[in-house]
Amino acid sequence: MFERLGRFVVGRAWWVIAGWVVAAAAIILTTPSLSDITSADQESFLPRSYESVQATELGQKAFPQQATATATIVVKRADGQKLTSADEAKVGQLAQSLKAKNIPRTSGYLTGPPAVAPDKSVQIINVGLDAPTPDDPALLDAVRDLRADIGPELANSGLTAGVAGDVASFVDNEDTFNNAFAVVGVATIILIIGLILVIFRSPIAALLPVVVVGVVLSITTGLVAAAGKAFDLSVSQDLQTILLIVLFGIGTDYILFLLFRYRERLRAGDDKRTAMIVTVQRVGEVITSAAGAVIVAFLVLLLASLGFFGSLGPALAIAVGVMLVTSLTLIPAVVSLLGRYVFWPSKAWQRAPKATIWHRLGNTVGRRPALVAAASGVLLVALAAGVLGYKADYDFSAGFPQETESAKAAQDLQRGFAAGALAPTEVYLTTSNGSPLNEQQVNDFAAAVAKAPGVGQAQPPERSTDPSVARVNLLLNENPVSNEAITLVRDDLRSAVHAAAPPGTRALVGGTTAIFADINSANNRDLSVILPVAAGLIALILALLLRSLVAPIYLVIAVLLNFAATLGATVYLFQGLQGEPGVTFQLPIILYLFVVAIGTDYNILMIARLREEAREGNEPHQAAAIGVEHAGPTVAAAGLILAGTFAVLLLAPISFLQQMGFAVAIGIVLSAFVMSMFFVPALTALIGHKAWWPGHGDERPAGGPHVPPEPEAVAKG
């Protein structure tokens, strides 16, 4: 099939390119924008069955005046002394003055109760921030305007103030974020161009992935937006960045798969058309199987209860599908027309150097497969043991620079009030039948929940305009986004609150900590479902590719072991050596996307090459040696580019970006240089012909097309 596809694409190359231009223009011009289906509300991605979502919905109905977000102005004396009565009066005047300025998107300016810390160290003003969505840029402008007006109002008063809260924190760290991702974008392009220049010594080959991925990204975003509109799907605002990284990752992989094999065929003496036909014939099945495995891994995210993952899966699957079609049509058409000029001005494509490092590595694997398998396996297992100490960390603020205004204001606030002051836990009480709550019920409930486990302070109960609803805000003793607070809310606090509800009423626990507690539960459930299902489906794809039941089993085990080793290595570094309370809770799913899904590409490329060499009549040990020699440069180049891209994030002054950068970089390195290059080939050599049981995948198909074997060595040229 792939031979026929190759003949069609090469024979009608100009028609294929013209078809791509027309299709790309039509899609880009007629499809909606990705921003049309983007949502920034992480809570909206939780299913409605979770209590925190129900609490939020009840709060929005019962307290419609509630702001989208809150900015907390924290006022203290410049000399560090306790606030005086005059100081407290001045803070009240500040609130009224700011309110009178009618700063757009702000409301409330509440100074109590309680506004003054028990130790008189700080006084707060709570300012409501109103916008249609939490990511509205107008909220950032509102915080900037607040800060600009506070200074003159407190001049010569002996008081200083800072604005804290999530929006204020984003304002302070916006440049850091933008710079980090800008650096990653630039580094990605530099790494791709630089490494391919080193490998092929050709600017044309180096620019090919950048140009192709740029076109595919525009097409993909249009198709994803159209699918979102058609099926009423929302996507995260992070999708554009994730799409870019995924497309550069797999796009560069597939282009390298094609270019390395195309160079081999040219070296073997094929003309430019025949070389590309054979390349598509040999590599087409590998790319299709690799893309199929990645698409399946992404679509399995539809099983997630978290809507964020569920919406991410189809979008990434569409991206991989477009890249697959591109790799089998547009790229072969362009390269077949360019011929040897794709490697211009280098002449090294004409010769295959002998005794390269890949030749020596291949011989090592072939001669001593038991030692290589044991060494690489022990390394992966040792790193995987770190998973036993894994703890999720939900505290993004701790990972930001602590010298910003919002960070210092938050520290002052937490010193004066309970640790949970910046993100109160919202407890709602409502009657079961809609009848009004009486004062006795509300007061008794408020008194009971104030004594619940982990509660440092309880604010006075608030009555809604709906007489059947009341709210009590609880300030926890723990950091509201710490593991301790999340565990507390999920277990003891919720149980105590539910038990405190008077007969005929029910209580719901909401707020930031409750949302993270539910995300924690949903995340654990999703990973326990997604990983096994994805492993089973990837094994099925491998079984169809290899016509074997044995090889897919140890290949999938290797992928899962590599996932655990990656997470374990991250735990060792950040929780062990750096003493952090945990690693970001998003890390397992990020590793699933970039290590399990994309890392499977390297396994498929290597095992397909091992089978191909076995079909040429080589014994298992010799097939492993030649397979590593031929596929090694491709795997190494693709792995270095993707790992290097993420490693740049280690330079960001934000902890969770550093964790993500290290984890994905080390995961790709382990996938490419330990699992695919040593562990899998060595294990395949040890198992021998039984690896292909019950089929005969290592035997040349009877009557099938035969292409002369490639030269002994493939190396950088």
TrEMBL record:
Compartment(s): Cell membrane
Main location: membrane
Keywords tagged on the record: Cell membrane, Membrane, Transmembrane, Transmembrane helix
Residues covered by region (Disordered): 697-717
Topology of the protein relative to the lipid bilayer: Multi-pass membrane protein
Transmembrane segments: 12-31, 180-200, 207-227, 239-262, 283-309, 315-343, 370-390, 527-546, 553-573, 585-605, 635-656, 662-687
InterPro entries: MMPL_dom, Mycobact_MmpL, SSD
Pfam families assigned to the protein according to its UniProt record, in alphabetical order: MMPL
Taxonomic superkingdom: Bacteria
Ranges of residues in domain SSD: 206-337, 555-685
Cross-referenced PANTHER family: MEMBRANE PROTEIN MJ1562-RELATED, MEMBRANE PROTEIN YDGH-RELATED
Family: Belongs to the resistance-nodulation-cell division (RND) (TC 2.A.6) family. MmpL subfamily.
Protein name: RND superfamily putative drug exporter
Organism: Micromonospora ureilytica
